[in-house]
Amino acid sequence: MKRKCLAIGIILLFVGTGIIPATAQDIEKPLPTSRGDWLYVGGIGPNNYTKIQDAIDNASDGDIIYVYNDSSPYHEHINITKSIDLWGEDKNTTIIDGYNNNYPVIYIQTTGNLSIHGFTIMNSSIGIFQGSEYIPTEVYIHDDILTKLQTGLMLNGMGTTGIRRDIQRNEIKENEIGMDIVQGIMNGGISENRISNNSIGIKFYHASFLSIEFNIITNNSKGIYLEASQSLIIYKNSFINNYYGVYLENKSITNEITQNDFIKNSWNRHAFFNKCAKNKWDRNYWDNWIGLKSPLFSWLPYIIMGRYGPLPWFNFDWYPAGQPYNISLPW
């Protein structure tokens, strides 16, 4: 009898160890996986820093800096010189205010891994800036709000493929330029962002091999603007109420614009090109396509207006979608 009880106990122990990890993994937004120390800014804990920059200066590579929202707003301009995770408690209430200075609110000056998460960044020339002299190995900018800036996010000279960079689940609004990607090559991509009420939502200049997908892009003068950029994949985005949805200019070539929704943008300005060629438009939904209104003309391609393309004035989406994709975000 004792042996039987012991055997049952061992079985239950193995079953329990199999269940607990599976349950522990059911977390909506996991904390950083860095093995470094935790440093705290704000709040009332002992030894907490009062300034984010002080915590960064005292951090080591691999550390996590957690910023509480009850000491917000933080009136700082921050230089990140180390490989760290910088996490705010709540993106809506953990605010870094650049107080209308001409210096970036966050200046990336590290070549290591970097994560920036959970902040509202506002009121300066640039929200987050990375120059060509500092190219992080991996960078994750996610779940932030970038607003009331001349440029929300500027990444300059992003390096070579094979290094991961993700810009995901951010709200980028009320800026002159939401994102400015200069000479970028990105493994990862720009996805699941809300980009609204900017003069230019996302600007690409001499950028290549980027993926831009599942973004909601609304009420901008130009939703996505490409200049001298090539081999970008613009896939499953929603362009609504912009003056121009997508604007290609100055030898932007071999880009693919596929399965996007173009709805209620200015008449005949869902998309426009100037001095560009060899771009592929495929299976996008256009709300002013005549084929939706009359089955007699459903075989017609959708005409994208422009200047000086492979034909003098036109590009074509040969297989426009008959129904919108109704693209939405999971947050």
Q: Could you give a short account of the major beta sheet?
A: 18 strands, mixed
Output mean pLDDT. 87
Radius of gyration from the alpha-carbon trace, in angstroms: 24 Å
Distance between the termini: 55 Å
What structural category characterises the helix and strand content?
mainly beta
Shape: elongated
The number of helical segments is: 3
Strand content is: 35-45%
Describe what you observe in this structure.
This protein is mostly beta strands and 331 residues long. It has a domain at 157-331. Helix content is 10%, strand content 40%. The protein is built from three helices and 29 strands. The strands form two sheets. The protein has an 18-stranded mixed sheet that branches. The chain has an eleven-stranded parallel sheet with strand order 1-2-4-7-9-11-14-17-20-23-26. A hairpin with a 6-residue loop joins strand 28 and strand 29 (314-317). It is elongated, with a radius of gyration of 24 Å. It starts with a helix and ends in a 14-residue tail after the last strand.
Topology:
Layout: H1 2-24, E1 38-41, H2 52-57, E2 64-67, E3 78-80, E4 85-88, E5 95-101, E6 106-108, E7 114-117, E8 120-130, E9 139-142, E10 145-156, E11 164-168, E12 171-173, E13 177-182, E14 187-191, E15 194-196, E16 200-205, E17 211-213, E18 216-218, E19 222-227, E20 233-235, E21 238-240, E22 244-249, E23 256-258, E24 261-263, E25 271-274, E26 280-282, E27 285-286, H3 290-293, E28 302-307, E29 314-317
Parallel strand pairs: 1-2, 2-4, 3-6, 4-7, 5-8, 6-8, 7-9, 8-10, 9-11, 10-12, 10-13, 11-14, 12-15, 13-16, 14-17, 15-18, 16-19, 17-20, 18-21, 19-22, 20-23, 21-24, 22-25, 23-26, 24-27, 25-28
Antiparallel strand pairs: 28-29
